Amino acid sequence: MEERRKKIEFDALVIGAGIAGGETALNIANNGYKVLLVEKDHSIGGKMILLSKVFPTLDCAACITTPKVSEIARHPNITVFTESEVTSIVKKTESLFIAKITKNPRYVHVEDCTACQLCEKACPVSVRDEYQFGLVGRKAAYIPFSIANPKAAVIDLEQCTLCGACERVCPTHCIDFTMETECFELQVKTVVLATGFQLFDPLKIPRFGYGKYKNVVTSMQMEREIAPTRPYHTILRPGDGKIPDQIAYVLCTGSRDDSVGNPVCSQVCCMYSMKQAQLLMGALPMADITIYYIDIRSFGKGFEEFYQQAKDMGVNFVKGKIGKISEKENGNLILRYEDIQEGIVKEAEHDMVVLSVGMLSNQSVHQIFDGEMLQFDSLNFIWQSDLLGSPAKTNIDGVFVAGTASGPMDIPDSILSAGSASSEAISYLIQH
Amino acid sequence: MKKNLGVYICHCGGNISDYVDVEKVRQAIEHEEGVVLAKTTMFACSDSNQKEMVEDIHQYQLDGVIVASCSPKLHLVTFRNVTETAGLNKYTYVHANIREQASWAHSDDKEGATEKAIRLVRAAISKSRYAEALYPNKFEAEKAIAVIGAGMAGMKAALSIAEKNMSVVLIEKENTVGGHVAEWGSLFMTNEKGSELVQRIHNDLLQHENISILTGTEVVSSKGSIGNFTLTLQKKHQPVDNLRETMEINVGSVVIATGFDHYIPQRGEFSYLNNENVISLPDFKKLTDQSTGKTLLYNGKEIHDIAYIYCVGSRQSEGENKYCSRFCCISTIHTAIETKKKFKGIRNFHLHRGIRTYGKQELLYDEALQNGDIFIQFHDDFPPEVSFKNKKTSLKVKDLLFSDKELLLDADLVVLVTGMLPRIDQSIGQLFKLPKGRDNFYNEIHMKLRPVETVIDGITLAGTCQGPKNISESVNSALSAATKAFSSISNGLVETEPIVAEINGNSCVWCGECLKACPFEAIEQKEIDGKIIAVVNKSVCKGCGMCAPVCVPNAIDLIGYSDKEIFSMIDALVQ
Amino acid sequence: MTSFVKKNAKILVFSTEKISDPAIDMAGLLKLHYPPTVYTITVPCSSGIKPNWILHAFEKGFDGVFIAADGTDCVFGESCTEKTGKVVAMTHEKMKQNNLDPARLRMAALCSVCSDAFVRQVRSLNEYLIKTRYSEK
Fold it and tell me: Which CATH class name applies to A2-103+181-196+362-431?
């Protein structure tokens, strides 16, 4: 394997092609530097491309992300590696990093695929669709989602039965089961880490019943239900397909909670929950939406005004901590909560519960540095070595951090953080 | 006149198609003269549709393209680039705004919205028939950047530009650099002192030969545009002599980093100025920073019990300060923790409206709680009352978390947690004509797509002049602004829109009215073939069109806005 | 008695790319509704609007014209307000000559976030035009 590593050379390596990594790559590339953008997923655009609309302007997320990803994909100075992982990085000199990259096979030649979906129709295997957060199924030969980039099929070999149906129907013969893992050795002068965050898994709080009660969903699942590229054409509760009219939001699910090991605030859940509440009120005019919160943190530009707007629209805000959720026979849910304002324990019935899950660190880059090691903070986010003076700097000179890899933040802050990281990287390239 | 037009009508994933019947729009316009292709699309801006457009342009030999989607402020450039990729002149592209100005504006009237969308698309088609190929004006840009304001954001922006080997002029009205941060003691999260942080960055600045730091200097006028701004700078009054020096500098781009003002409570607001024991957060920070004894003394009196009243001047239901100032919760909690560490016998009482220690700041909130600080949340509509009797300051507050039970509490000192205001001195904003948001801070073009750029090309925003931020957020914004400014002029060339005025020499009779109307001295008198006429200097003309209505023989058209184009659009709208 | 449907007036708005058009966009974003018979043509600066465009609009059947002027925020300089005022005065003069009610042309300066003001202005012009149209008939 080692001998077969293809040697490649770029000016900058950006790991993670979400909104922060993409913005960073564009900024660096626009200054004439060659950038390699490495993404482990099948599409670039990160989590933002899967969102419905974004606060506080209610712009549609796709309207902002799709042109950006398009610009990234077409940029003459940017090379995108999807389904790829950086397995090691060693700093050799001030201006030389050696990185090893593994590019996994997609079993489809992207340049020939027209995304006609015939393979999808032909494939007999149905599995859980991770891009719709399990709300619906997908095939083993599939287009990740309708606005994915590259928009091309993928063969999920783990689920595939090798029946060959997809290969037979493909009009451009772009499906290729002989594709192999490719290995690269990259020489690069600077590295930007934009590896993003992970969503809290609510299975870790069994008393909320996620996974057990079908009408308890995560905020990301609700996000998909109201997105333009949504799986159903309306909002349904998964248990029985009923249109819900008593929806509850449980804020701080997995945030500000020492018992699950995450004592900090995720910064976005208050706002996205209020956003979803506003969108739901538009889609389901008869629905009552209740948000159970500890504190409402609407701190950004236009956020407080957005909070007032949600209140004016009739969203019901209850300062209360949820103790336990239980299910009734009809699928409705009983929330037992401490009404913090009145200091008593109460119960309320809802027909759908949305858990507003928080942001945790993504630890995928924790082990990749050899030699000079990358440092992390107590929550395993990448440590910002000069938080106030140069927030994009890590402890390794020439390695920078962009977006939520250094801590929870919203989209505008992620983009500014990416601007900051790219600025540092460009300066580093000019000076070395 | 264009003959092969392609029209794309966007669903915008429901944003348009939920209110506008896009298929009906398509059918209504597909037989318009010149239209050879009319399609609806889920997301016009998606990569797959962009590719399809390029293919269509080749396949149908389109010579004009119209997309009816969101506001041109979002995607005019996107679609211009698509047509350019396909080999068309990008200025022949015409955009119709059927989201902000049809589906959303008339979501209460689907038929009306659809009818309006049809007419807007027809008008765009009409305009497209006449749209001419244009070529941007290219000219040399001054390879230097001015940064106005030398607080943290301005200093970091300047440093980041200098690190990229470009000249920077850092202009500061005050006599010292560092802004508000220089006044602060220990800072939250890192515990570095504000003055030390400023000193550290200042030292970095001094390492760079290509930075000129001009303190005690104001910008008094600005001429020109992206690539070539001429700023007139004036030294402020010197105490010794009364001479005013002025100088001019030429730069290609300007970064605005003018910062914020602290909210100053009004006399009587929570007894401020009426009771000497009521002070603002910045004053309290100064007091604790400068006190050296083991006990905190204020006006010679020992301080033990401190009450902090949050959201003073922020999150107000009336007036302009509806916004949250973002930094004050954490700043207060951090100060409370530090005060308790530094002085004996401190008890902190936080009277708040919901603590907003977002992100990792939460760890400090936890620390304050563990320290035994008391947090009392009051109702938005029932702020605490401060009274002064028998030389004692007391507060009356209804505790929201105790069924609005009324609490009485004595305090040695009351700290008003004051927020951020947009600069009261708006002279820089007026000078550059910067638009302001609803909160009166300067406004970016788009919070997510172009967060540091303004509608004025070549002017970017850094730090808190755009809205409340903490230090690291300000620095991120400053570096983003610096990069945008740098990238726009780094190759020494700028392109500007080819939209300029055009004079028809046959009709012109040289009366001089256009010369009088032009604010940019772009009109010159010239003799051509024995006739004296007016001509436009294209490199100076900014394309405002002020000369056009005053022309008596109607000899002037603004390119892209000629009579025939406007008339055809009017006809299409009313037809 | 015949009851007749109160039909909205056709109004042409001239907005400006950098200042007033963003305000009109924001009115849409905030779903501040106004009559869908209000159409916008965007120009760089309100002081570049020609009187003959406005007369053409009336001639072709628009009931009213509203100029959403830049005001003092104009990126092309402070003279914009005065010059836009002159355009309106010139047009009013020509309207009188053509027996058109000058009140069918209105102007107001709109800042880039003046969405409420825009909606108020066009609604009020619409009301006026409906009232005068019906009283004429």
Answer: alpha beta
Matching residue, tokens 């057990």? A212
Q: Do A389 and B197 touch (CB under 8 A)?
A: yes
pLDDT digits (tens, 9 = 90+) for A194-250: 999 999 999 999 999 999 999 999 999 999 999 877 788 789 999 999 999 999 999
Report the length, in residues, of chain C.
137
According to CATH, what is the number of the domain A105-179? 3.30.70.20
B297 and B413 share one domain: yes
Total structural domains within chain B: 4
Residues 6+ apart with CB under 8 A from A213: A239, A325, A327, A331, A333, A353
The CATH number covering residue B535 comes to 3.30.70.20
Count residue pairs from A and B with Cβ separation < 8 A: 208
Facing residues of A275 across strands?
Answer: none
Residue C29 binned pLDDT confidence (cut-offs 50, 70, 90): confident
Give B229 to chain C, closest Cα distance, Å: 14
The interface predicted TM-score of the complex, written ipTM, equals 0.95
Cβ-defined contacts of B527-535 (< 8 Å, 24+): B531/B505, B533/B503, B533/B505, B533/B508, B533/B509, B534/B503, B534/B508, B534/B510, B535/B503, B535/B505
Domain C11-132 -> CATH class: alpha beta
Residues B18 and B55 in one domain: yes
Residue B507 domain boundaries: 500-558
Q: Is the confidence at residue B313, as pLDDT, over 50?
A: yes
Q: Tally Cβ neighbours within 10 Å of residue A123.
A: 24
For residues B212 and B124, membership in a common domain is answered with: no
B570 found inside a domain: no
The nearest CA of chain B is from the CA of C40 a distance in Å of 8
pLDDT digits (tens, 9 = 90+) for B73-103: 888 988 999 999 999 999 999 999 999 999 9
Do B482 and B510 have their domain in common? no
Cβ atoms within 10 Å of C13's Cβ, excluding its own:
24
* Closest CB from B542, B543, B549 relative to C87: B549
pLDDT of residue B9: 97
Alpha helices in B344-402 (DSSP H): 362-370
Q: What CATH number did the domain enclosing B194 receive?
A: 3.50.50.60
Q: What subunits touch chain B, counting only 3 or more CB pairs under 8 A?
A: A, C
- Please check whether residue B243 lies inside any domain of the structure: yes
Domain A200-358: CATH class, spelled out: alpha beta
Q: What pLDDT was estimated at residue A114?
A: 82
B192 domain-assigned: yes
How far apart, in whole angstroms, are the C-alpha atoms of residue A296 and residue A288?
19
- Contact between B354 and A297 using a beta-carbon 8 Å cutoff: yes
Is-same-fold flag (A105-179; A200-358)? Answer: no
Distance CA B324, CA B315 (A): 5
pLDDT at A417: 98
- Burial of A410: CB neighbours in 10 Å, binned 0-12, 13-18, 19+: buried
Q: State whether B223 and B179 are in the same domain.
A: yes
- Average per-residue pLDDT in chain A? 94
Residue among A252, A327, A305, A313 nearest A284 (CA): A313
Every domain of chain A and the residues it spans = 2-103+181-196+362-431, 105-179, 200-358
Would you call A63 and B43 a contact, using CB atoms and an 8 Å cutoff?
Answer: yes
The pTM is what? 0.87
Domain co-membership, B235 together with B275: no
Given a contact as 3+ CB pairs under 8 Å, which chains touch C?
B
Q: How far apart are CA B516 and CA A6, in angstroms?
A: 67
Does C137 score more than 50 pLDDT? no
Of B100, B519, B554, the CB nearest to C25: B100
For the four alpha carbons of B351, B354, B359 and B360, in that order, the dihedral sign comes to: positive
Of the partner residues A27, A62, A267, the one whose CB lies closest to the CB of residue B358: A267
Residue A329: both structure tokens together: 């026979």
